[in-house]
């Protein structure tokens, strides 16, 4: 039996290799161990029938230059031992490699991978930097294997943010999403950062509510306050209120998105939260605000050209100035009263249209950029939707101005698409 297993010898192998092409071929050592010699060199194979699938398989054991005859025999012996237990050596090797991978991937590596995946859908320009800043503050968690992280480890690192509740919530979100990636990548089986687990170990309030909004009856007075300010932030916030758009959409508005002759603002799909192009009809006051802002940036460009030999290009961003290309993420913070949020003005608009007008549910949802309707309704509204949204937004603008427009009260009241709209709602 020993002779059947050990048919090759080190001296015999060396002699065979010296023969050149005459030595090419498969040389069987017995027990499934084979040395293959060809123009690419000499390498070991272990050939066997899988006890799992019943199929013939080959497993590479390495080259002759790196694996000696004795080592190759030992590896083949281990393979036969696994087969005797009903295991497939290739499957077991892959499982071992996967376990080694699970042990080696750290939280920081997984967090970076998660950031790269999620950032493709992020619209806030500073989101990547915010993510990286949070990860850097996670201390020992960064170097831990994602496989070994427990709820107590997360609670411990979150305590660093006890005096910063907002950052604490962001930190938990970063950890939770990173661990979701680890689970999806089969680096572990569960997510220890789930709210139900962490809430028992920290004092963090995990309840998530809607963005606090200003009652729509108070919005006209607030807009009056904004008009008393001379800053571009105040003008931009008024535009946001009039259009029902999001903060980042206004802050990053570019000249290319505007067609003031047609009173339209087209927000690209890579900017909107819904990841689809959103066309915003502009009211008279919205156009007025934008024309004033464009005059301001054009005057600034002319002044810069007068002071320099190099002609300054017209800024791409509507709200840019000499120092910043776009409005900062916190540009509106100092203008918002306690109990309200920037995002909440979308709710103010939506509630006004629902409570005080006969604007249809579909149109009101489309005004604030929400997806509505089935494919039939969507096809129809590509033609009619802009006109209806324009009327709805003008009604909102008239309300803010304190000049209710009776004709706007008829918006959607006798819509030819009413049947389709009600079905889609």
TrEMBL record:
InterPro entries in the record: DNA_brk_join_enz, Integrase-like_cat_sf, Integrase_catalytic, Integrase_DNA-bd_sf, Integrase_DNA_bind_dom, Integrase_recombinase_N, Phage_Integrase
Pfam families: Arm-DNA-bind_3, Phage_integrase
UniProt xrefs under SUPFAM superfamilies: DNA breaking-rejoining enzymes
Keywords of this entry: DNA integration, DNA recombination, DNA-binding
Transmembrane segments: none
This protein's record includes keyword Ribonucleoprotein: no
A molecular-function term among this protein's GO annotations: DNA binding
GO BP: DNA integration; DNA recombination
Protein family: Belongs to the 'phage' integrase family.
Name of the protein described by the UniProt record: Tyrosine-type recombinase/integrase
Organism: Rhizobium phaseoli
């Amino acid at each position: 039996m020993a002779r059947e297993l050990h048919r090759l010898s080190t001296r015999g192998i060396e002699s065979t290799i010296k023969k050149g092409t005459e030595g090419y071929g498969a040389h069987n050592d017995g027990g499934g161990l084979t040395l293959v010699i060809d123009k690419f060199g000499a390498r070991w194979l272990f050939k066997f029938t899988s006890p799992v699938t019943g199929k013939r398989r080959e497993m590479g054991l390495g080259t002759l230059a790196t694996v000696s005859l004795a080592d190759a025999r030992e590896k083949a012996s281990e393979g036969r031992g696994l087969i005797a237990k009903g295991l497939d050596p290739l499957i077991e090797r892959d499982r071992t490699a996967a376990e080694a991978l699970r042990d080696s991937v750290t939280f920081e590596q997984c967090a970076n991978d998660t950031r790269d995946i999620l950032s493709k859908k992020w619209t806030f320009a500073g989101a990547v930097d915010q993510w990286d800043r949070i990860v850097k503050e996670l201390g020992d968690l960064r170097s831990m294997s994602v496989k070994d992280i427990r709820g107590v480890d997360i609670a411990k690192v979150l305590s660093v943010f006890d005096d910063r509740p907002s950052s604490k919530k962001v930190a938990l979100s970063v950890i939770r999403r990173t661990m979701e990636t680890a689970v999806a990548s089969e680096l572990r089986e569960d997510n220890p950062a789930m709210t139900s687990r962490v809430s028992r170990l920290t004092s963090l309030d995990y309840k998530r509510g809607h963005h606090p909004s200003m009652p729509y009856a108070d919005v006209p007075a607030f807009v009056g306050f904004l008009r008393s300010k001379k800053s571009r932030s105040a003008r931009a916030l008024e535009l946001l209120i009039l259009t029902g758009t999001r903060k980042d959409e206004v802050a990053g508005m570019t000249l290319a998105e505007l067609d003031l002759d047609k009173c339209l603002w087209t927000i690209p799909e890579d900017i909107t939260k819904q990841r689809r192009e959103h066309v915003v009809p502009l009211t008279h006051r919205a156009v007025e605000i934008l024309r004033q802002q464009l005059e301001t940036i054009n005057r600034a460009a002319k002044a810069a050209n007068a002071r320099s030999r190099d002609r300054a290009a017209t800024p791409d961003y509507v709200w840019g100035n000499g120092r910043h290309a776009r409005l900062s993420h916190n540009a509106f913070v100092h203008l918002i009263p306690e109990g309200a949020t920037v995002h909440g003005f979308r709710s103010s608009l939506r509630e006004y249209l629902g409570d005080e007008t006969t604007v249809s549910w579909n149109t009101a949802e489309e005004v604030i950029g929400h997806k509505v309707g089935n494919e039939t309704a969507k096809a129809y509204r590509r033609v009619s939707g802009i006109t209806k949204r324009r009327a709805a937004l003008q009604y909102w603008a008239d309300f803010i101005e304190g000049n209710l427009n009776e004709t706007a009260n008829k918006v959607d009241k006798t819509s030819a698409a009413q049947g389709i709209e009600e079905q889609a709602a």
